Fold each of these.
Amino acid sequence: MPAPVVHFEVGCKNLEATKKFYGAVFGWEYVPEMPSMGMIANIGGHCPKPTVGIGGHINSLGHEPHNYVTVYMQVDDIEKTLTQIAKAGGSLLIPKTEVPGMGYFAWFKDPEGNALGLWTPAMQ
């Protein structure tokens, strides 16, 4: 089965200013009490007040890269997919990492240097 794009992430230095910008322009609301990220509460199926569209969040890593946009493809097996990526000429950026209670993600680079993400929900 093809891997659908299921999530996006926008990186920034100033989380509150960036949240304010996207809120003012696009009407995004955010899940409260998430100090290093702004999980968008009103788009995507996994958020508390979903509408149409894929879910996403704004993230302040606290280190480089500050400015980035990453899309995440949902796959059944992150480790198997990372092996396929390496065989096809891509490379690992961030290994399989748990998001407690939600699932797992990883980042990779394609052969052109684009950074992308993989996602597997905890309950699949």
Note: The chain has two domains: 11-65, 75-124.
Amino acid sequence: MNKYKEIRAFVAVATEGSLAKAAIKEKITPSMLGRRIDALEQRLGIKLTHRTTRLLTLTEQGRLFLKHCDELLTDLELSESGLFPDASEVSGQLLVLAPPYFGREHVAAHAGDFLAAYPGVQLSFNLTNDYPDPVREDYDLCIRIGNIIDPNFVTAKLATNRRVVCATPAYLERHGTPRRLEDLADHNCLAVNLQADRHRDWLFQERGQLVSVKVDGNVDCSDGEVLVRWARDGLCLAWRSTWEVGPQLASGELVSVLDEFALPSFDITAVYPRHKPSRNARLFIGLLHDIYAAPNYWTTGRRM
């Protein structure tokens, strides 16, 4: 049986929540859909769904596999719809939601490239740390930092991102270089504050386990760009994403420490409602993916 048909069947059933509804959408019989999912589970050697006559739910492995299927199908749809469609045929609105700092530096900054290719599109950005319901608010595309596993949304990985503890060489010379997580207690550590809630916990991985370390410092701010500026000024240690400090790490202005305790990649993803597969959203995803994949983009802060 065609592997692509098996995956399409699984995604359709996961989206609709039942074989009957998915069969109507895919224009085949429920029994055929069931056989395709059975074949997929047998080939993979895992259970993807729990099925009854009325209800279908995903197993934990099913939710993880759905995320990978979304990325695969998104890439295929971008190819089939044409990475370079006739610009005169591309029009309408594209409403994008993104975090403020990342959105300014790495999303809205590329609006000009997109509009140069597709001048008929009306682009609208909402850059906010508050995440409204993208379905209720009718967003076409959301840019998120961190893995999102939700069967109601399609996710596409845009870039790999890590969290690092970093400081200027001058700060480390004055205060010493932390070698163990316990050493952070002796350092001035930047903190994030959100509506008077000060986040004084940094997360690490030690011997395969997630570890939360309470840190302390004499400065905090709700704006990530300010936190990076303070780190560059040598005020303290910062726990920041590589998309924020990549150029400074590459130049040696900042130095990362405790790298052996770093968390696994905290990917940058594009998310859009499964019921609303916008062609404009897929084209914008393709543009960002190509820009982010360009050599040295994350260490220079610009497209080469």
Note: The longest helix spans residues 60-81.
